[in-house]
Amino acid sequence: MLLDRIAVDYSGQLRDEKWTLYSHAFPPRSDERVLDVGVSSLDELPHENYFLSRYPYHHQLTGVGITDLEPLRRAYPDATFVQADGRELPFDDLAFDVVHSNAVVEHVGGETEQRRFVHELTRVARAGFVTTPERWFPFDTHTRLPVCHWLPRPLMIRAFEALGRPERGIWLLSRRRFRRLFPPDVQVQVHSQRIAGWPATTVVIFRRR
Description:
Elements: H1 2-25, E1 34-37, H2 50-54, E2 61-65, H3 70-75, E3 80-83, E4 96-102, H4 111-124, E5 125-133, E6 139-140, E7 145-146, H5 153-162, H6 175-180, E8 186-195, E9 198-208
Parallel strand pairs: 1-2, 1-4, 2-3, 4-5
Antiparallel strand pairs: 5-9, 6-7, 8-9
């Protein structure tokens, strides 16, 4: 399907840009502890684990995901993998120097659960890089359909089902609502990745004050 191919192409472009932005904000060092929340066992899919595949020091990287992570343990034997829910991370406060999480927060539930997730990221790390698709971009990359995600949630779900692309528990965030999830004791910078001038992805870089 044409829209599927376009989505994959743009996804690769955006993830290349994310890595550039991340590495400028947090140049990888050989003496840091890094957490990647939301790793996927579907490593063979294009661009699925863009951060894991690019980060150069796997021995100091911990990946967290909710699925069976054994395929990742085999593919990245120097990294550590933990099966856990990002809303309840099994790590001490400030256990990591940097946390990365790409396009996970929109999958954890509504606003209350999203705030739990974000607060856990800011609890376990001194700084972080967190992304989510922009709700007001006219194309939803999850269902590969245009503008239906702008409808009120009950109508949105019906529209996706009628068009053969069932909604899979996605709560998209605008830039403003995403920013409001972060606690006041962290310093936040907000960036937008754009496609054809439209904000397509919101990136929040946070640091402890």
